[in-house]
Amino acid sequence: MEYVNPEGLRLDGRRFNEMRQIVAEVGVVSKADGSAVFEMGNTKVIAAVYGPREIQNKSQQKKNDHAVVLCEYSMAQFSTGDRRRQKFDRRSTELSLVIRQTMEACILTELMPHSQIDIFLQVLQADGGTRSACINAATLALADAGIPMRDLAVSCSAGYLNSTPLLDLNYVEDSAGGADVTVGILPKLDKVTLLQMDAKLPMETFETVFALASEGCKAIAERIREVLQENTKQLEYRRAA
Amino acid sequence: MDGRLSNKWRVTVNESKFVESALQSELRVDGRGLYDYRKLTIKFGKEYGSSEVQLGQTHVMAFVTAQLVQPYKDRPNEGSFSIFTEFSPMADPSFEPVHPGESAVELGRIIDRALRESRVVDTESLCVFAGKLVWNLVDAANIAALAALLTFRRPDCTVGGENSQEVIIHPPEEREPLPLIIHHLPIAFTFGFFNKGSILVMDPTVVEEAVMSGRMTVTVNANGDICAIQKPGEEGVNQSVILHCLRLASSRAAATTKIIREAVEAYNRERSSQKVIRHHTLAKSEVLGPIEVV
Protein backbone atom coordinates (compact mmCIF):
# COMPACT_ATOMS: atom_id res chain seq x y z
CA MET A 1 0.00 0.00 0.00
CA GLU A 2 1.14 3.52 -0.76
CA TYR A 3 1.32 5.65 2.36
CA VAL A 4 3.09 8.59 0.77
CA ASN A 5 2.08 9.54 -2.77
CA PRO A 6 4.54 10.88 -5.38
CA GLU A 7 3.62 14.45 -4.46
CA GLY A 8 4.79 13.70 -0.92
CA LEU A 9 1.35 13.74 0.65
CA ARG A 10 0.12 11.18 3.18
CA LEU A 11 -3.25 9.43 3.32
CA ASP A 12 -4.83 12.25 5.28
CA GLY A 13 -3.19 14.95 3.16
CA ARG A 14 -0.37 15.86 5.51
CA ARG A 15 3.28 16.19 4.54
CA PHE A 16 5.91 13.95 6.17
CA ASN A 17 6.81 16.49 8.86
CA GLU A 18 3.31 17.73 9.54
CA MET A 19 1.47 17.06 12.76
CA ARG A 20 -2.26 16.65 13.16
CA GLN A 21 -4.28 19.54 14.51
CA ILE A 22 -3.91 19.95 18.25
CA VAL A 23 -6.81 21.08 20.40
CA ALA A 24 -6.21 21.33 24.13
CA GLU A 25 -8.26 22.60 27.02
CA VAL A 26 -7.68 22.57 30.76
CA GLY A 27 -10.18 22.45 33.60
CA VAL A 28 -12.72 20.12 32.02
CA VAL A 29 -13.47 17.98 35.10
CA SER A 30 -14.60 20.33 37.83
CA LYS A 31 -14.34 17.81 40.68
CA ALA A 32 -10.68 17.01 39.96
CA ASP A 33 -7.78 19.13 41.19
CA GLY A 34 -6.53 19.38 37.65
CA SER A 35 -7.83 18.13 34.32
CA ALA A 36 -7.37 18.50 30.61
CA VAL A 37 -8.59 17.30 27.25
CA PHE A 38 -5.99 16.80 24.56
CA GLU A 39 -6.83 16.13 20.92
CA MET A 40 -4.46 15.29 18.11
CA GLY A 41 -6.54 14.93 15.00
CA ASN A 42 -8.97 12.14 15.78
CA THR A 43 -7.19 10.97 18.90
CA LYS A 44 -8.86 12.38 21.97
CA VAL A 45 -7.79 11.87 25.57
CA ILE A 46 -9.11 13.16 28.85
CA ALA A 47 -6.92 13.41 31.95
CA ALA A 48 -7.85 14.07 35.57
CA VAL A 49 -5.40 14.62 38.42
CA TYR A 50 -6.19 14.26 42.12
CA GLY A 51 -3.68 15.31 44.73
CA PRO A 52 -1.29 15.82 46.28
CA ARG A 53 -3.26 14.17 49.06
CA GLU A 54 -2.57 11.82 51.94
CA ILE A 55 -1.31 8.38 51.00
CA GLN A 56 -4.15 5.88 50.99
CA ASN A 57 -2.19 2.67 50.89
CA LYS A 58 1.06 2.87 52.84
CA SER A 59 2.55 -0.15 51.11
CA GLN A 60 2.65 1.75 47.85
CA GLN A 61 5.23 4.10 49.27
CA LYS A 62 8.65 3.41 47.84
CA LYS A 63 10.70 6.22 49.31
CA ASN A 64 9.70 7.95 52.52
CA ASP A 65 10.65 11.45 51.44
CA HIS A 66 8.97 11.42 48.03
CA ALA A 67 5.40 11.68 46.81
CA VAL A 68 3.84 8.59 45.25
CA VAL A 69 2.56 8.94 41.70
CA LEU A 70 -0.17 6.57 40.53
CA CYS A 71 -1.48 6.37 37.04
CA GLU A 72 -4.34 4.56 35.38
CA TYR A 73 -4.72 4.35 31.63
CA SER A 74 -7.89 3.00 30.11
CA MET A 75 -9.60 3.06 26.78
CA ALA A 76 -13.28 3.79 26.46
CA GLN A 77 -15.39 0.99 25.00
CA PHE A 78 -16.39 3.29 22.18
CA SER A 79 -12.86 4.55 21.45
CA THR A 80 -12.27 2.14 18.58
CA GLY A 81 -14.44 0.77 15.82
CA ASP A 82 -14.76 -2.70 17.25
CA ARG A 83 -15.95 -3.02 20.81
CA ARG A 84 -13.16 -3.58 23.29
CA ARG A 85 -13.50 -6.71 25.38
CA GLN A 86 -11.64 -6.25 28.60
CA LYS A 87 -10.79 -3.07 30.44
CA PHE A 88 -7.35 -3.95 31.77
CA ASP A 89 -5.33 -5.89 29.27
CA ARG A 90 -1.56 -6.28 29.06
CA ARG A 91 -1.25 -3.25 26.84
CA SER A 92 -2.94 -0.84 29.20
CA THR A 93 -1.02 -2.20 32.19
CA GLU A 94 2.21 -1.49 30.37
CA LEU A 95 1.06 1.96 29.27
CA SER A 96 0.03 2.87 32.82
CA LEU A 97 3.51 1.93 33.99
CA VAL A 98 5.26 3.83 31.23
CA ILE A 99 3.16 6.98 31.67
CA ARG A 100 3.54 6.85 35.47
CA GLN A 101 7.30 6.67 35.25
CA THR A 102 7.44 9.45 32.68
CA MET A 103 5.37 11.77 34.86
CA GLU A 104 7.31 10.75 37.97
CA ALA A 105 10.49 11.97 36.31
CA CYS A 106 9.09 15.45 35.77
CA ILE A 107 7.16 15.99 39.02
CA LEU A 108 9.20 17.38 41.92
CA THR A 109 8.15 14.51 44.17
CA GLU A 110 10.72 15.39 46.82
CA LEU A 111 8.72 18.52 47.69
CA MET A 112 5.65 16.51 48.70
CA PRO A 113 6.62 13.72 51.12
CA HIS A 114 3.90 11.43 52.53
CA SER A 115 1.48 12.31 49.77
CA GLN A 116 0.15 10.75 46.63
CA ILE A 117 -0.82 12.08 43.24
CA ASP A 118 -3.31 10.16 41.10
CA ILE A 119 -3.46 10.56 37.35
CA PHE A 120 -6.42 9.09 35.49
CA LEU A 121 -6.33 8.89 31.74
CA GLN A 122 -9.17 7.87 29.52
CA VAL A 123 -8.93 7.53 25.77
CA LEU A 124 -12.16 8.77 24.23
CA GLN A 125 -11.16 8.34 20.61
CA ALA A 126 -8.20 6.25 19.48
CA ASP A 127 -6.58 7.04 16.14
CA GLY A 128 -2.92 6.30 16.75
CA GLY A 129 -0.53 7.97 19.14
CA THR A 130 -2.63 7.47 22.27
CA ARG A 131 0.36 7.17 24.57
CA SER A 132 1.79 10.47 23.36
CA ALA A 133 -1.59 12.14 23.70
CA CYS A 134 -1.95 10.73 27.23
CA ILE A 135 1.41 12.11 28.33
CA ASN A 136 0.57 15.53 26.90
CA ALA A 137 -2.85 15.50 28.55
CA ALA A 138 -1.31 14.43 31.87
CA THR A 139 1.21 17.27 31.71
CA LEU A 140 -1.58 19.79 31.12
CA ALA A 141 -3.67 18.35 33.94
CA LEU A 142 -0.73 18.36 36.37
CA ALA A 143 0.01 21.97 35.48
CA ASP A 144 -3.67 22.77 35.98
CA ALA A 145 -3.56 21.12 39.42
CA GLY A 146 -0.62 23.36 40.30
CA ILE A 147 1.73 20.47 40.98
CA PRO A 148 5.39 21.57 40.88
CA MET A 149 7.23 20.13 37.89
CA ARG A 150 10.78 20.25 36.57
CA ASP A 151 9.62 20.83 33.06
CA LEU A 152 6.64 20.08 30.82
CA ALA A 153 6.94 16.43 29.83
CA VAL A 154 5.79 16.15 26.22
CA SER A 155 5.65 13.27 23.84
CA CYS A 156 5.30 12.67 20.12
CA SER A 157 5.67 9.70 17.81
CA ALA A 158 7.26 9.26 14.41
CA GLY A 159 7.42 6.34 12.03
CA TYR A 160 9.05 5.12 8.88
CA LEU A 161 6.97 4.03 5.89
CA ASN A 162 7.70 3.88 2.15
CA SER A 163 11.30 4.87 3.00
CA THR A 164 10.07 8.20 4.40
CA PRO A 165 10.20 9.26 8.03
CA LEU A 166 6.70 10.38 9.05
CA LEU A 167 5.73 12.54 12.02
CA ASP A 168 2.74 11.76 14.25
CA LEU A 169 1.32 8.51 12.82
CA ASN A 170 -2.41 7.97 12.68
CA TYR A 171 -4.00 4.56 13.19
CA VAL A 172 -3.80 3.43 9.57
CA GLU A 173 -0.12 4.36 9.34
CA ASP A 174 0.60 2.87 12.75
CA SER A 175 -0.90 -0.51 11.88
CA ALA A 176 0.93 -0.66 8.55
CA GLY A 177 3.71 -2.65 10.18
CA GLY A 178 6.48 -0.09 9.80
CA ALA A 179 8.61 1.18 12.62
CA ASP A 180 7.03 3.33 15.30
CA VAL A 181 9.15 5.47 17.60
CA THR A 182 7.54 7.23 20.55
CA VAL A 183 9.69 9.84 22.24
CA GLY A 184 9.04 11.72 25.45
CA ILE A 185 11.27 14.64 26.33
CA LEU A 186 11.74 17.38 28.88
CA PRO A 187 12.21 20.21 26.34
CA LYS A 188 13.84 22.87 28.54
CA LEU A 189 16.31 20.43 30.09
CA ASP A 190 16.75 18.75 26.70
CA LYS A 191 16.56 15.26 28.19
CA VAL A 192 14.87 12.17 26.82
CA THR A 193 12.73 10.35 29.39
CA LEU A 194 10.59 8.04 27.30
CA LEU A 195 11.74 6.13 24.28
CA GLN A 196 9.86 3.18 22.84
CA MET A 197 10.31 1.59 19.50
CA ASP A 198 9.23 -1.51 17.64
CA ALA A 199 9.83 -3.12 14.25
CA LYS A 200 13.19 -3.12 12.59
CA LEU A 201 15.21 -0.05 11.57
CA PRO A 202 18.85 0.43 10.60
CA MET A 203 20.83 2.66 12.92
CA GLU A 204 21.09 5.70 10.62
CA THR A 205 17.37 5.66 9.81
CA PHE A 206 16.56 5.41 13.49
CA GLU A 207 18.59 8.55 14.14
CA THR A 208 16.60 10.58 11.60
CA VAL A 209 13.25 9.26 12.83
CA PHE A 210 14.29 9.95 16.42
CA ALA A 211 15.33 13.50 15.52
CA LEU A 212 12.00 14.07 13.74
CA ALA A 213 10.02 12.86 16.77
CA SER A 214 12.08 15.12 19.06
CA GLU A 215 11.33 18.09 16.81
CA GLY A 216 7.64 17.18 17.07
CA CYS A 217 7.91 17.11 20.85
CA LYS A 218 9.36 20.61 20.91
CA ALA A 219 6.54 21.92 18.75
CA ILE A 220 3.97 20.30 21.05
CA ALA A 221 5.72 21.79 24.09
CA GLU A 222 5.31 25.24 22.59
CA ARG A 223 1.61 24.65 21.93
CA ILE A 224 1.08 23.34 25.49
CA ARG A 225 2.83 26.38 26.91
CA GLU A 226 0.54 28.65 24.87
CA VAL A 227 -2.56 26.84 26.15
CA LEU A 228 -1.41 27.15 29.74
CA GLN A 229 -0.54 30.82 29.36
CA GLU A 230 -3.92 31.51 27.77
CA ASN A 231 -5.60 29.72 30.67
CA THR A 232 -3.65 31.76 33.21
CA LYS A 233 -4.62 34.96 31.42
CA GLN A 234 -8.28 33.94 31.56
CA LEU A 235 -8.03 33.22 35.29
CA GLU A 236 -6.38 36.59 35.87
CA TYR A 237 -9.03 38.34 33.82
CA ARG A 238 -11.86 36.67 35.73
CA ARG A 239 -10.33 37.60 39.06
CA ALA A 240 -10.02 41.22 37.99
CA ALA A 241 -13.63 41.28 36.86
CA MET B 1 10.98 -3.08 39.26
CA ASP B 2 7.45 -3.23 40.46
CA GLY B 3 7.34 -0.97 43.46
CA ARG B 4 3.80 -1.81 44.45
CA LEU B 5 4.43 -5.21 45.95
CA SER B 6 4.09 -5.16 49.69
CA ASN B 7 6.85 -7.69 50.29
CA LYS B 8 9.29 -5.98 48.00
CA TRP B 9 12.88 -6.31 48.93
CA ARG B 10 14.54 -2.95 49.48
CA VAL B 11 18.16 -1.98 49.43
CA THR B 12 19.47 -0.34 52.54
CA VAL B 13 20.70 3.24 52.41
CA ASN B 14 24.24 2.10 53.11
CA GLU B 15 24.16 -0.47 50.38
CA SER B 16 22.86 1.96 47.79
CA LYS B 17 25.45 4.57 48.79
CA PHE B 18 28.15 1.93 48.47
CA VAL B 19 27.03 0.94 44.99
CA GLU B 20 26.84 4.55 43.89
CA SER B 21 30.17 5.64 45.29
CA ALA B 22 31.86 2.58 43.83
CA LEU B 23 30.43 3.47 40.44
CA GLN B 24 31.84 6.98 40.74
CA SER B 25 35.28 5.39 40.53
CA GLU B 26 34.10 3.04 37.77
CA LEU B 27 33.88 -0.04 39.97
CA ARG B 28 30.96 -2.43 40.18
CA VAL B 29 30.03 -4.52 43.17
CA ASP B 30 30.53 -7.79 41.35
CA GLY B 31 33.90 -6.75 39.96
CA ARG B 32 32.86 -6.26 36.35
CA GLY B 33 33.78 -3.29 34.20
CA LEU B 34 31.04 -0.79 33.37
CA TYR B 35 30.29 -2.29 29.96
CA ASP B 36 30.95 -5.95 30.78
CA TYR B 37 28.33 -8.59 30.31
CA ARG B 38 27.81 -11.45 32.75
CA LYS B 39 28.68 -15.01 31.77
CA LEU B 40 26.10 -16.55 29.51
CA THR B 41 25.36 -20.26 29.33
CA ILE B 42 22.68 -21.96 27.31
CA LYS B 43 21.31 -25.45 27.94
CA PHE B 44 18.63 -27.39 26.11
CA GLY B 45 16.00 -29.78 27.35
CA LYS B 46 15.20 -33.24 26.06
CA GLU B 47 12.28 -32.09 23.98
CA TYR B 48 12.25 -29.78 21.03
CA GLY B 49 11.80 -26.14 21.88
CA SER B 50 12.81 -26.01 25.49
CA SER B 51 15.82 -24.22 26.84
CA GLU B 52 17.40 -22.86 29.93
CA VAL B 53 19.57 -19.79 30.00
CA GLN B 54 21.80 -18.57 32.72
CA LEU B 55 23.17 -15.04 32.77
CA GLY B 56 25.21 -14.61 35.90
CA GLN B 57 22.81 -15.52 38.69
CA THR B 58 19.70 -15.14 36.59
CA HIS B 59 18.03 -18.30 35.36
CA VAL B 60 15.31 -18.36 32.76
CA MET B 61 13.51 -21.29 31.25
CA ALA B 62 11.65 -21.09 27.99
CA PHE B 63 9.29 -23.53 26.36
CA VAL B 64 7.62 -23.42 22.99
CA THR B 65 4.39 -25.09 22.04
CA ALA B 66 2.35 -25.07 18.90
CA GLN B 67 -1.30 -25.62 18.32
CA LEU B 68 -3.72 -25.38 15.44
CA VAL B 69 -6.16 -22.53 15.65
CA GLN B 70 -8.25 -20.45 13.36
CA PRO B 71 -6.35 -17.51 11.87
CA TYR B 72 -7.39 -13.94 12.55
CA LYS B 73 -10.03 -12.68 10.17
CA ASP B 74 -7.94 -9.80 8.85
CA ARG B 75 -4.86 -11.99 8.25
CA PRO B 76 -6.11 -15.32 6.90
CA ASN B 77 -2.76 -16.54 5.57
CA GLU B 78 -0.68 -15.82 8.63
CA GLY B 79 -0.20 -17.77 11.78
CA SER B 80 -0.10 -16.04 15.09
CA PHE B 81 2.54 -15.90 17.72
CA SER B 82 2.17 -15.02 21.35
CA ILE B 83 4.40 -14.79 24.38
CA PHE B 84 3.56 -15.51 27.99
CA THR B 85 5.77 -14.70 30.93
CA GLU B 86 5.58 -15.98 34.43
CA PHE B 87 7.63 -15.11 37.49
CA SER B 88 7.88 -17.78 40.07
CA PRO B 89 7.87 -16.57 43.68
CA MET B 90 10.47 -19.26 44.28
CA ALA B 91 12.95 -17.09 42.42
CA ASP B 92 12.50 -13.88 44.33
CA PRO B 93 10.09 -13.12 47.17
CA SER B 94 9.03 -9.91 45.46
CA PHE B 95 7.35 -11.91 42.71
CA GLU B 96 3.76 -12.45 43.65
CA PRO B 97 2.20 -15.81 42.88
CA VAL B 98 -0.76 -16.09 40.50
CA HIS B 99 -1.25 -12.43 39.67
CA PRO B 100 1.27 -11.20 37.09
CA GLY B 101 2.81 -7.95 38.23
CA GLU B 102 3.31 -4.83 36.18
CA SER B 103 6.89 -5.79 35.54
CA ALA B 104 5.94 -9.24 34.26
CA VAL B 105 3.53 -7.62 31.85
CA GLU B 106 6.15 -5.12 30.74
CA LEU B 107 8.71 -7.86 30.24
CA GLY B 108 6.29 -9.81 28.10
CA ARG B 109 5.56 -6.73 26.06
CA ILE B 110 9.24 -5.95 25.48
CA ILE B 111 9.89 -9.45 24.20
CA ASP B 112 6.71 -9.41 22.22
CA ARG B 113 7.73 -6.18 20.56
CA ALA B 114 11.24 -7.38 19.84
CA LEU B 115 10.23 -10.70 18.38
CA ARG B 116 6.88 -10.20 16.78
CA GLU B 117 6.95 -6.68 15.46
CA SER B 118 10.37 -7.10 13.91
CA ARG B 119 9.07 -10.25 12.22
CA VAL B 120 11.56 -12.73 13.55
CA VAL B 121 9.34 -15.70 12.88
CA ASP B 122 7.95 -15.98 9.41
CA THR B 123 4.31 -16.07 10.39
CA GLU B 124 3.13 -16.72 6.87
CA SER B 125 4.98 -20.00 6.83
CA LEU B 126 3.07 -21.05 9.89
CA CYS B 127 -0.12 -22.52 8.71
CA VAL B 128 -0.09 -23.53 12.31
CA PHE B 129 -0.29 -21.40 15.33
CA ALA B 130 2.83 -21.19 17.39
CA GLY B 131 1.95 -20.17 20.91
CA LYS B 132 4.97 -19.45 22.98
CA LEU B 133 4.76 -20.35 26.56
CA VAL B 134 7.60 -18.93 28.52
CA TRP B 135 8.15 -20.04 32.01
CA ASN B 136 10.68 -18.16 34.04
CA LEU B 137 12.52 -19.07 37.11
CA VAL B 138 14.52 -16.15 38.31
CA ASP B 139 17.16 -16.28 40.94
CA ALA B 140 17.90 -12.90 42.45
CA ALA B 141 17.59 -11.41 39.04
CA ASN B 142 16.62 -8.14 37.53
CA ILE B 143 13.80 -7.93 35.12
CA ALA B 144 15.76 -6.12 32.54
CA ALA B 145 18.42 -8.78 32.35
CA LEU B 146 15.60 -11.27 32.27
CA ALA B 147 14.13 -9.57 29.30
CA ALA B 148 17.49 -9.77 27.65
CA LEU B 149 17.74 -13.45 28.42
CA LEU B 150 14.33 -14.38 27.23
CA THR B 151 14.73 -12.47 24.07
CA PHE B 152 17.79 -14.16 22.83
CA ARG B 153 16.78 -17.43 24.35
CA ARG B 154 13.61 -17.76 22.43
CA PRO B 155 14.66 -17.66 18.81
CA ASP B 156 16.90 -20.69 19.08
CA CYS B 157 14.26 -22.89 20.63
CA THR B 158 13.58 -23.45 16.99
CA VAL B 159 10.83 -25.98 17.34
CA GLY B 160 9.27 -28.61 15.22
CA GLY B 161 6.30 -26.78 13.85
CA GLU B 162 4.21 -29.55 12.31
CA ASN B 163 4.25 -29.97 8.59
CA SER B 164 0.60 -29.55 7.75
CA GLN B 165 -0.62 -29.25 4.21
CA GLU B 166 -4.11 -30.55 4.66
CA VAL B 167 -4.41 -30.08 8.35
CA ILE B 168 -2.90 -33.48 8.87
CA ILE B 169 -0.55 -33.48 11.73
CA HIS B 170 2.18 -36.01 11.19
CA PRO B 171 3.49 -37.48 14.40
CA PRO B 172 7.22 -36.93 14.81
CA GLU B 173 7.93 -40.65 14.29
CA GLU B 174 6.41 -40.50 10.85
CA ARG B 175 7.86 -37.29 9.59
CA GLU B 176 10.69 -35.17 10.89
CA PRO B 177 9.33 -32.00 12.56
CA LEU B 178 10.21 -28.83 10.68
CA PRO B 179 12.07 -25.98 12.26
CA LEU B 180 10.51 -22.52 12.30
CA ILE B 181 11.77 -20.01 9.81
CA ILE B 182 13.69 -17.49 11.85
CA HIS B 183 14.68 -14.35 9.98
CA HIS B 184 17.12 -12.85 12.44
CA LEU B 185 18.07 -13.00 16.08
CA PRO B 186 17.24 -9.87 18.03
CA ILE B 187 19.28 -9.61 21.20
CA ALA B 188 18.33 -7.42 24.12
CA PHE B 189 20.81 -5.39 26.11
CA THR B 190 19.88 -3.46 29.20
CA PHE B 191 21.58 -0.33 30.39
CA GLY B 192 21.27 1.30 33.77
CA PHE B 193 21.69 5.02 34.37
CA PHE B 194 23.11 6.27 37.63
CA ASN B 195 23.83 9.63 39.15
CA LYS B 196 21.37 11.71 37.08
CA GLY B 197 22.26 9.92 33.87
CA SER B 198 25.98 10.64 34.02
CA ILE B 199 27.07 7.04 34.69
CA LEU B 200 26.13 4.30 32.27
CA VAL B 201 26.26 0.61 33.14
CA MET B 202 25.55 -2.44 31.00
CA ASP B 203 23.61 -5.49 32.24
CA PRO B 204 22.76 -4.31 35.79
CA THR B 205 22.29 -6.85 38.59
CA VAL B 206 19.38 -6.84 41.00
CA VAL B 207 21.21 -4.62 43.50
CA GLU B 208 22.22 -2.16 40.82
CA GLU B 209 18.66 -2.16 39.50
CA ALA B 210 17.32 -1.16 42.87
CA VAL B 211 19.76 1.74 43.09
CA MET B 212 19.73 3.06 39.53
CA SER B 213 17.60 5.98 38.47
CA GLY B 214 16.81 4.94 34.92
CA ARG B 215 16.88 1.98 32.62
CA MET B 216 16.81 1.33 28.92
CA THR B 217 16.53 -1.95 27.05
CA VAL B 218 17.75 -1.99 23.49
CA THR B 219 17.10 -4.93 21.19
CA VAL B 220 19.41 -5.21 18.21
CA ASN B 221 20.42 -7.93 15.78
CA ALA B 222 23.81 -8.79 14.35
CA ASN B 223 23.11 -6.84 11.13
CA GLY B 224 23.07 -3.62 13.10
CA ASP B 225 19.30 -3.13 12.89
CA ILE B 226 17.48 -1.85 15.91
CA CYS B 227 14.46 -4.04 16.64
CA ALA B 228 13.02 -2.49 19.78
CA ILE B 229 13.77 0.07 22.44
CA GLN B 230 12.13 0.45 25.79
CA LYS B 231 12.96 3.34 28.04
CA PRO B 232 9.92 3.64 30.25
CA GLY B 233 10.11 7.14 31.63
CA GLU B 234 12.29 7.59 34.70
CA GLU B 235 15.45 9.68 34.67
CA GLY B 236 15.97 11.77 31.55
CA VAL B 237 19.18 11.38 29.60
CA ASN B 238 20.74 13.22 26.70
CA GLN B 239 20.21 12.10 23.13
CA SER B 240 23.92 11.46 22.71
CA VAL B 241 23.86 8.96 25.61
CA ILE B 242 21.04 7.04 23.94
CA LEU B 243 22.88 6.86 20.65
CA HIS B 244 26.01 5.77 22.53
CA CYS B 245 24.00 2.91 24.10
CA LEU B 246 22.70 1.85 20.70
CA ARG B 247 26.21 1.68 19.30
CA LEU B 248 27.49 -0.28 22.29
CA ALA B 249 24.62 -2.74 21.95
CA SER B 250 25.11 -3.35 18.26
CA SER B 251 28.82 -3.92 18.74
CA ARG B 252 27.98 -6.64 21.28
CA ALA B 253 25.22 -8.28 19.28
CA ALA B 254 27.52 -10.29 17.03
CA ALA B 255 29.33 -11.96 19.93
CA THR B 256 26.11 -13.00 21.64
CA THR B 257 24.63 -14.25 18.39
CA LYS B 258 27.71 -16.41 17.96
CA ILE B 259 27.29 -17.96 21.41
CA ILE B 260 23.67 -18.80 20.62
CA ARG B 261 24.44 -20.20 17.18
CA GLU B 262 27.23 -22.38 18.59
CA ALA B 263 25.02 -23.71 21.36
CA VAL B 264 22.27 -24.54 18.90
CA GLU B 265 24.68 -26.25 16.55
CA ALA B 266 26.16 -28.36 19.34
CA TYR B 267 22.67 -29.36 20.38
CA ASN B 268 21.63 -30.28 16.85
CA ARG B 269 24.78 -32.33 16.37
CA GLU B 270 24.12 -34.24 19.55
CA ARG B 271 20.53 -34.91 18.56
CA SER B 272 21.42 -36.22 15.14
CA SER B 273 24.16 -38.44 16.55
CA GLN B 274 21.63 -39.95 18.96
CA LYS B 275 19.42 -40.88 16.04
CA VAL B 276 22.26 -42.66 14.25
CA ILE B 277 22.86 -44.90 17.25
CA ARG B 278 19.20 -45.89 17.45
CA HIS B 279 19.17 -47.03 13.80
CA HIS B 280 22.40 -48.89 14.31
CA THR B 281 21.15 -51.05 17.17
CA LEU B 282 17.96 -51.85 15.28
CA ALA B 283 19.89 -53.12 12.27
CA LYS B 284 22.10 -55.27 14.48
CA SER B 285 19.22 -57.12 16.13
CA GLU B 286 17.71 -57.88 12.73
CA VAL B 287 20.93 -59.37 11.55
CA LEU B 288 21.37 -61.33 14.75
CA GLY B 289 17.87 -62.83 14.63
CA PRO B 290 18.23 -65.26 11.69
CA ILE B 291 21.71 -66.30 12.79
CA GLU B 292 20.35 -67.58 16.07
CA VAL B 293 17.70 -69.62 14.23
CA VAL B 294 20.39 -71.27 12.15
From TrEMBL, chain A:
SUPFAM superfamilies: Ribonuclease PH domain 2-like (SSF55666), Ribosomal protein S5 domain 2-like (SSF54211)
InterPro entries: ExoRNase_PH_dom1, ExoRNase_PH_dom2, ExoRNase_PH_dom2_sf, PNPase/RNase_PH_dom_sf, Ribosomal_Su5_D2-typ_SF, RNase_PH
GO MF, one annotated term: RNA binding
One GO CC annotation: nuclear exosome (RNase complex)
Keyword field: Cytoplasm, Exosome
Domain of life: Eukaryota
Signal peptide: none
Principal localisation: cytoplasm
Pfam family of the protein (one): RNase_PH
All copies of domain Exoribonuclease phosphorolytic, residue ranges: 18-148, 151-215
Family annotation (CDD domains): RNase_PH_RRP41
Gene Ontology terms describing biological process: nuclear mRNA surveillance; poly(A)-dependent snoRNA 3'-end processing; rRNA catabolic process; U4 snRNA 3'-end processing
Location of the protein in the cell: Cytoplasm; Nucleus, Nucleolus
UniProt record similarity statement: Belongs to the RNase PH family.
Name under which the protein is recorded: Exosome complex component RRP41 homolog
Organism (species): Arabidopsis arenosa (Sand rock-cress)
UniProtKB/TrEMBL annotation, chain B:
Main localization (coarse): cytoplasm
Subcellular location: Cytoplasm; Nucleus
Organism phylogeny: Eukaryota, Viridiplantae, Streptophyta, Embryophyta, Tracheophyta
Signal peptide coordinates: none
GO biological process, one term: nuclear polyadenylation-dependent rRNA catabolic process
SUPFAM superfamilies in the cross-refs: Ribonuclease PH domain 2-like, Ribosomal protein S5 domain 2-like
One Gene Ontology term of the molecular function aspect: mRNA 3'-UTR AU-rich region binding
InterPro entries: ExoRNase_PH_dom1, ExoRNase_PH_dom2, ExoRNase_PH_dom2_sf, Exosome_comp_Rrp42_subfam, PNPase/RNase_PH_dom_sf, Ribosomal_Su5_D2-typ_SF, Rrp45
Keyword Membrane annotated: no
Residues annotated as domain Exoribonuclease phosphorolytic: 37-155, 184-251
UniProt organism field: Arabidopsis lyrata subsp. lyrata
One term under GO cellular component: cytoplasmic exosome (RNase complex)
Protein name (database record): Protein ECERIFERUM 7
Sorted UniProt keywords: Cytoplasm, Nucleus, RNA-binding
One Pfam family named in its UniProt record: RNase_PH_C
Family membership: Belongs to the RNase PH family.
